[in-house]
Specification:
alpha/beta
């Protein structure tokens, strides 16, 4: 019998689904009808504009949540064929959803740190692997964010047009998801707030996500 950690692959016939189907905590193979159980956990997306504090908070959050959740930096996969130019970067996002879903089979939810909006994850076929996706953004006031970006090393290539785009994203994101303003907040206070957010989400009763049947 074929066995795979990739949840798109049927352990009975080996078919690889382009659009996975789930019913509760079971996946179903469209090709042969086989059903098999999987862990359907919530995913936590710690998002926000560049320079809002994700890279500073991430390592401390990993220490804070050790044994409870797996904290990952999404930019480590921003390479090669995954560095796609399509709007929303669907190949990149889908790869991360598959990776997180595989990690969830070990019993711990994933906290994915990186710039992302709900509109970039929710429509993807791989969204079906998660009971919910929780979004929390680290943001800052425009002046502070601009100053932080201009202070970055030259190799990061933060020119004025790119900074303007990020400032606009910072403004837009405030109206989309729950936010923590890091303009004057102490790092440890932000880490503690994010950890509380994750723990609250872990404690919720899992519900079926979109795309279930």
């Amino acid at each position: 019998m074929p066995v795979a950690l990739d949840l798109r692959i049927c352990p009975s016939c080996g078919d690889r689904a382009s659009c996975p189907q789930a019913a509760g905590d079971n996946l179903r193979c469209v090709e042969c009808g086989h059903r098999w159980p999987f862990r359907r956990l919530p995913l936590f997306a710690l998002t926000g504009p560049s320079a809002a504090g994700k890279s500073t908070v991430g390592p401390k959050l990993a220490q804070q949540l050790a044994g409870e959740a797996v904290v990952l930096e999404q930019d480590v996969l921003w390479t090669g064929a995954l560095r796609d130019d399509e709007p929303g970067h669907p190949a990149f996002r889908a790869a991360w959803l598959r990776m997180a879903a595989m990690l969830h089979q070990n019993g711990r939810p994933v906290v994915l740190c990186g710039t992302v909006a709900p509109q970039e994850l929710e429509p993807l076929p791989e969204r079906v692997f998660f009971s919910d996706v929780h979004y929390l953004a680290l943001v800052a006031d425009g002046e502070t964010l601009g100053r932080r970006l201009r202070a970055r090393p030259a190799w990061r290539e933060w020119d004025e047009p790119r900074i303007a785009e990020m400032l606009e994203f910072n403004r837009w994101l405030r109206g989309q998801v729950e936010c923590i303003d890091t303009t004057e907040a102490a790092v440890d206070d932000v880490v503690a707030a994010v950890a509380r957010w994750v723990r609250a989400g872990i404690g919720e009763t899992p519900e079926s996500g979109p795309g279930t049947s």
